Amino acid sequence: MTGRLAAAVRIVSGLTLVSRFAGLARDVIIMRLLGDSALGSAFRAAYMVPNVFRRLFGEGALSAAFLPHYAQLRKQEPERARALGSIIVWGSTLLTSGLTAAIVLVLALRVLLLPASADVALSIKLVIVLLPIMPMVCLVAVLGGMLQAHGRFGVPAAAPIVLNLFQIGAGAALWLGVLRPLGSAEDELGMRTGVFVIAGAALLASMASVAWSWASLRKLTPLGSARGALGMLRAGGEAKGDARVVWRRFLPAMLGLGTLQLNTMLDTLIAMWPTWVGPTMLGRPTPLDSASYVILSATQTLYQFPLGVFGIAVATAVFPMLARTRDEPGAFIDVLRRGLRLSLFIGLPASAGLMLVRHDLVRVIYGSGSQSFSEDGLVRCAAVLLGFAPAVWAYSLNHVLTRAFYALGDTTTPMRVALGAVALNLGLNLSLIWPMREAGLAWATAMSAMVQCGVLGMLLRRRLHGLREGHERVLNRETVAAFTRIGVLAVVMAGAVWGVQWLLGPRETWLGHAARVAACVLGGAAAYGGGALLLRAPEARWLLTKGPKRTGGEGESIAMDG
């Protein structure tokens, strides 16, 4: 089990690492084109809408509601599993396409019938262009969940790479002047045209992802037609019952897994308040401005890099294994322990490292050049990153804990905890923005995530108490010792990074900041890795363990080889 989990984590992490580097390159190009301007905020806010759906569905909710039931049916009744897959694929596609059409119609009428400023109109038009990505994202999520149930993690993890590469191509073409006839990349009118080019590239990439995922799944199991799926629903019976089980779990799963995304949406609404609503909030002048959202959004990219590469990768790899062992308490608890330890082993040093290198990092990524962030924008980015970074470990553990509930068939408990976390985040948002501006939104997200992690852990411990049947509890002596060891290693790593910064001293140029970041990364990695070897931390060995290869039913590869 350890080998298979490690192999799956390596596949997902490796491809997600490529995806995140591509995503970072995409954001750097786009942010350097737009800068910390009102246009940058308008584009990032519009892109947030389909992006939140991507994270809700692609990184969890629909797959979380669907995968456990599908995985169980595959072991017992493969034909029934195929029927369920067809129903969910076509049902989710039709439902989200209808919802998309309705929202686009409302937004189009808003632009045509009601007066709006140029920035508001641009933001709404961008949402209209990007919103059709939503049904394609949902389809890729369901297909990805089915591929994961067959032990194929590569295509679902690599699909975002396609999205990033298309946008990198469009952004680079604008930056290099290849698309200069559409408008100069050096003036606002030209870039107002250019952002639609980038949005169009995202649409084309989504179509390509659907085609790739569909072709990959067809090699493993055939899917019925939309007419056939509708016929199964009309006929009732087991197929309709299975579909009802999935849909009943979907909304709680969306709320439970999507807390971070729901908080992101609230952050967006508050940060875009000066543009979308006006200069006052709650009867007081708002402390935010037109650059607040692009600063917040650009900084989210930095803390979500380690979260997406490792935190979500661990949760994605562990979820099918939890689903398959739900009836084996000993194996389930063992997989859960290892998932939590791997998440903390990666997430805690990421939190410490981001906090320490924040000033140099934002200057390397978003500084230098005529189209880059202003000095004020860079300082504010560093303040926002200091707010987000302390909870990278909590964001990671929340994904594992939530999926453990889902694997047990419980989507209600994470939903209730998530709603409480969203309410807490909103209250903290409205309290902290006045003294801290957009950095208050980041601190609110981090604090609510840490509270959510503690509550989920406590409730899961209670839930598993009656299932252990003589097995050790999740937080046994070995696991507590592992958590303590990871904490010590993170402190050692933080000391090493601080020491490197002290030795190198402050830097003024872009190359100087880049050199400090590189030295800090190397020094911190050496200290953390060396300490892990000295303390014989098994988590490092797990990540390097090669998984076994065997062949299951229907030609399934259990090697997790992507």
Structure description:
- The protein is mainly α and 562 residues long.
- It contains 21 helices and two strands.
- The protein has helices at 2-34, 38-58, 61-76, 78-113, 118-130, 133-149, 154-175, 188-218, 226-235, 237-257, 259-271, 273-276, 292-324, 329-366, 375-388, 392-407, 412-436, 438-465, 477-504, 510-534, 538-544; strands at residues 280-281, 284-285.
- Strands 1-2 form a two-stranded antiparallel ribbon.
- The radius of gyration is 23 Å and the shape is globular.
- The relative contact order is 0.13.
CA-atom Rg in angstroms: 23 Å
Spatially, the strands of the biggest sheet line up as: 1-2
Tell me the overall shape: globular
Query: What structural category do the secondary elements indicate?
Result: mainly alpha
Q: Give the total of beta strands.
A: 2
Helical content, roughly? Answer: over 70%
Strand percentage? under 5%
Distance between the termini: 17 Å
Number of domains: 1
